[in-house]
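Protocol step 4 of 6: structure prediction from sequence.
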Amino acid sequence: MVPKRRLLREAVMRVLFQYDFNPEGYRDFVEEELKKITDTSLRNDFQRYVQTIFENLSRIDETISKYLINWSFERISHLERSLLRLGTYELIFEPNIPIEVTLDEMIEIAKKYGTEESGKFINGVLDKIAKTEAPSEKFNL
């Protein structure tokens, strides 16, 4: 059985993935994903994640770009970009999720949908972001 939080993260990742291909129509993908989520608490979390991510997308993208070494943001695969956006969101905007949980989840999802290298890439970038951008209280969780 897949944990509820993993289902939430995968749904948000799919919305972010589709956004890369159709920025104008991403709200349709949000609605499609919402239909699949039956748990009220998870629906609320999904809506909060999506809303906050899109309200802060430029900040999230700038943060990711700052930690890419010899790589441009545009060259990142759609999957990896989606997971980096989601992971960066959790690291910066979700104070009650431990850093290790975010890193582990993003790596596992990257391995599931991408490759072993995807997981390593995601880990490398998010680890740098966590060490310098995550609020200090996250280190005490």
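Step 5 (inspection) to follow. The longest helix spans residues 4-21.
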